[in-house]
Fold each of these.
Amino acid sequence: MKSGVVVFPGSNCDHDVYHVLKHVLGQEAVFLWHQEETVKGCELVVLPGGFAYGDYLRAGALAALSPVMAAVKKHAEAGGLVLGICNGFQVLLEAGLLPGAMRRNKDLRFLCRDVYLKVERTDLPFTRRFKQGQVVRMPIAHGEGNYEDGPAALDQLEAAGQVVFRYVAPDGARSDEWNPNGSARAIAGIVNVRGNVLGMMPHPERCAEMVLGNADGLELLAGVVESAVAVGASR
Amino acid sequence: MRAGKSFDIRLSTDDPAEAERLLRRMCEKLLANTVVEEYAVELTPAAPASAAVGDPFP
């Protein structure tokens, strides 16, 4: 599977994702500079974490208007896979590829810690290696991860099964105490209706090797690779 | 409570309708995130050009 990792000025998790795709999973991976006008034939496009364009104005707002994002939109419309991690999720929201918006964390502090996530859906390329309702641990590192949308829009998101990850306690129970940033409905990650564009605040690429103490995140990226291989085999 | 942002933007047009159209477009496209923010536009005649280049916070 060929993957492209977008590099905005200010991206800082681009090499981490590239490393996992290329060296841990042994896949072809390239970087896509923000001024690129195509995704160079990649099957998966990753928008990595960081502070694209310095996050001036709002996180992800300026990056959403960059040339490469027009190509990413085309790729998504054609059914191509897109994964936005942390700042990448913020960019997807600002670009309108996913619904909703981010506000400052509820306590207004930048949070850098592990969280527990409940996997709400396993029929996606991104989650096929997880079990329904499985609780996984991944790190977060963000100041604006407080997901919000109107009540009607949130109901619609839930009804359409677009909530993929939720912040929970280690035993899988939902509570304000284990929702680190105050996100509506404890939402940590969502997917578009078609199921090919995923945005999530936690960082799977930072927990993809046991040498780092945790490999829960590898399952996500390995699932994407598996699904691409499966699609290739059925063609 | 959450404080928003305010922008002072100097336009080259002297047509109020055109100015308002431009500003609303800027707000919709970039300056405001209308999912969680509202915006308001207020037009004021520009000061003479010579005064405008100076320090905005003297």
Amino acid sequence: MNDDPIDLSALDPMDDEPRWRAFVDVTLRRVDAVLAERAGREDPLDLIASWRRPLLAVAAAAIAVLVPTEIALERREARVQRVERLVAVSSRVADGGRPTAADFLRALGDARAAEGKTP
Amino acid sequence: MPDERDEDLVAGVRRGSREAAEQLADRHLRACRAVALAIVGEVAGAEDVCQDAFVYAMGHIDDCRRPARFGAWLRQIVRSHARNHLRDGKRDRMVSLDAVDAPARGRSAERADLRERLLAALRTLPEERREVVLMHDLEGWTHREIAERLALPEGTVRSHLHLARKALRRLLDGLRADLKE
């Protein structure tokens, strides 16, 4: 029983090699166009991913500057309020008024509280 | 990069490498043409399908979920394109591409006639048998490779190959006898 391979070489693309080479070249030129289109098409997720690091760096820098600034401003504000309350008590004394012990305690207590101490 | 694995080449195409696409074409285009030929049944149409499928694959390379099996994925795209090609009846386009082939016919009319006889004989076979005989006797794949890539038992591949050869031999002998008369 003859089960030898059939000679299909007439169907081989290399039977006409220049034609096959031209076919591959045309195919790759079409691929070039597709690759160029892919390169020009920004994926939104890729875009976000590419921004992630710079955004994180900016956020870290902002936190590093703003948090100490905020703390410093709060302390300064508390000091100003304490001085204002003491000035108010002093003014009442200067005007001949008689501040009560509670007024003194409130002014000193608030001042200590503002400094984080217990009255 | 001749030794690069398919998955590396797929990654290269995803990064926009033309060289990687060229390597994949060198590796897989011939087999794609054979698969298309098995379905479409004529050379110009098969090459048309093969080219469209390869370009489509490069454009949708992100959809290739198993880059190590790029070849199987590509051949599946070829099959789909070939069936669409037949369904849409792109006969006019085939004729125009056949016309491009005319100089080759002029150079070797006898070779072109042989090709037409082979194609006519192949068209009488069931599609799967056509693909098996083209992959084995034209592309040089082993029984095992065909079995793995077509997801068929190796015995079935051998049987398809035997029956396809028998039918082709009978048809080609008959055509030769007709030509002598």
